[in-house]
Every structure is written in structure tokens, then in C-alpha cells.
Amino acid sequence: MGIEERFKQFEKFVKTELPARKAPAMANTASRLGGEVVNSDNGDYILRTSRYLPGDCHGIFSFAELENHKQLNFDNYTSAPSAGEFNLHDVVVVDTETTGLSGGVGTVPFLVGLGYFEDDSFIVRQHFLPDYCEELGFLEHLFDDLPGKVIVSFNGRAFDLPLLTNRFLIQRTGSDFFAKDHLDIIFTLRRFFRLKLPDCTLKTAESSLLGFERLNDVPSEQIPQIYFDYLRDGNPDSVYQVVIHNQWDILSTLGVLVELNKFVEKAERAD
Questions:
Q1: Among 122, 128, 134, which Cα is nearest to 96's?
Q2: Looking at 65-79, 85-99, 145-159, 178-192, which range is the least confident one?
Q3: Ordered alpha helix ranges (H), 72-177
């Protein structure tokens, strides 16, 4: 028996209907997460977009009270990336959910939330990675058409941004996004509130400064396992709660940014 005949014997094992099964499975996940499938040459991903209007609130934090074009001073924040001023329309809030909490090259961000202003609306754009093999396309389009010139995060300097940078390097692609100024507000929170709050986590800050209490939230330490379970069984129900968790993180980071600026301005007036 020749080599060609031998290969034909194994043909039935090599052939797979995976591409045919992939599309409906991804469409189902997108529907359950309230998003849509985005197809690209190097990998497909799921995009979920939420819009917050001036009449919306996050706890007692009201979007109607925001002065989007008011100049904020970098000097009001600890470890600011530069001097000078910026406003909320300059801001891009970033938060990631990942396959591990310790970082490292084996940790993958499977959900990246980006928050920014568009006219009078605040947009929360969430990119979900449905499988590891789609990562290049997921990363290549992560920052497409993204306004703003100042990255704002909560502990992003130590975790989110280095992790994203590593994944871009591993996939041998790049982005101008990482050249933006980066303001990590955890340092300002610690400076002014470490003796006033039980701790300086985002959950404590949002409760104390924004009056926002999370109901049915997913503990951060459970998030990696939820994603692993999804990869194994394809059930996106628990992933939806992770998406909401990420959305709350984006909104709370914006709110804490604004409230910290108010706190500093109030203290300066008192002097």
C-alpha cells in the first residue's frame, strides 16, 4: 500500500466540521452576552457596546452632573503622567479580565473594557475573546477608532497595561495606544483615603465615593475559572456576569476619577 492510500485511510479522522460549528456557537455566545460577532482575517471576536446618557446614574454618581469639557489638572493626581490639563473627552478608561491574577506571559486578557465619551454619551466598549486561537484578530482591532489621549485605569500600571503590552509583543503586532499618557488613579486614592477607608480597592472606593453597591457580583478570583469553564463547555451564562463586572469596573473608575478631582479642589478651596 502506497503512502497516498495510507493517508486516505486516515482522512475521515482528519476531516472536521469545526469551522461549520464555530459560527453558530459564537453567534449564540454573542447573543447571550448582548453583543455581536466581529469577523476579521486573523481571528473573530465578540463586541458589546453600552451607552450611558446624561440621565443615567451609577450609584449616586450622575452623568448629568458631569462637566465633560471642564479642564482637569494632572497636578491633582498622584504619579500623573505629565503636567498640564485634560478633560473627560480626552479620557479612555481601560479594564481587563484575565485568565490569571498574577500576570506573566501565560496570562491572557479575554475581556477588555474601554470607556470613552462620544458627544454627551459615555460609551463602554467590551471586546470578548471567544477562544485563544482568535487572539491576533482580537488584539489587532482592540483600539480601532478609539478617541482620547489619556488612558485612565485603576491599578492598570501594575497589571492591565503591562499584560496587554506583553500580548501584543507575543502576537508580533503593535498599537499607538500604548504611547498615550497613562493616569492610574489608585495612587491618588491611596494618598488621600488610605486612612479613611478600610482598604483602597475599587469596590470599597465605589461604595464610599459613589454610593454604588454591587449585587450578585462575581468575585475576581473566580473569573479565570469561569472563562476556562466556558472554553470547555461553551456555556456563556456565567461569562455574562463577568461582562457586567467589567462594565461596573469601567464606570466606577470614571466615577472615582471625577470624585478624586472634586476632593482635591474642595481641599484647595478650604486652604
A1: 128
A2: 65-79
A3: 135-140, 160-170
